[in-house]
Amino acid sequence: MNAPSTAVSPFARFRHIVVEGPIGAGKTSLARRLAEAFGAQLALEEPAENPFLERFYRDSRRYALPTQLFFLFQRVNQLRDLAQRDLFEQSMVGDFLLDKDPLFARLTLDDDELRLYQQIFDSLSPQAPTPDLVIYLQASPETLIERIARRGVEMETGISETYLRALADAYSRFFHHFESAPLLIVNTEHMNPIERDEDFAALVRQLAEIRGRRSFFAIGE
Fold this sequence. Notes:
Elements lengths: L15 E5 L6 H12 L2 E3 L9 H6 L1 H25 L7 E3 L6 H8 L2 H14 L8 E6 L2 H11 L9 H16 L6 E5 L9 H12 L5 E5 L3
Parallel strand pairs: 1-3, 1-4, 2-3, 4-5, 5-6
Helix pairs in contact: 3-4, 3-5, 4-5, 6-7
């Protein structure tokens, strides 16, 4: 997909952008569209590579720790590889923020597992570069549930509504206190920047107008 006509590339200001949000929010699709529109490098999560994920959705208690640790090492290795290729020589957009990784651990691990995970996370997290901008995509649990059902990914059929609601709440609390990088909070209830060109163009314009450390953007019905 092409960039909106006359649009100023957001990567002129923000060389490293991360799009975040709970499953179903559209973070990977938006990261892809930004990369395609403006020629940025992509750094995406690879959930299909995690051999524990499908089992986690069926039996979260049993498979929480290996699922969590696999994703942690995967994300750290991706970010390390990008840093070695000199991230700042090319604009980059990703769909995961390493600082958010413990959010999942606190939802799924028991106390002993969480302490082990936290020790490993603390030893690895300093290797991750800080993005220049984080875009947090918000959506209600009901909207997330509907989107996940509509896209029909077989592995995701085991995700419970209870887990999705807890996850959406955890994201809201995490980004309420997030101060590590400039943050744009985007309410996606009534907008679709992936499939609707006018919504994507509006979002790109908003990126050009960001001032300060925290901004909000929404489109009404």
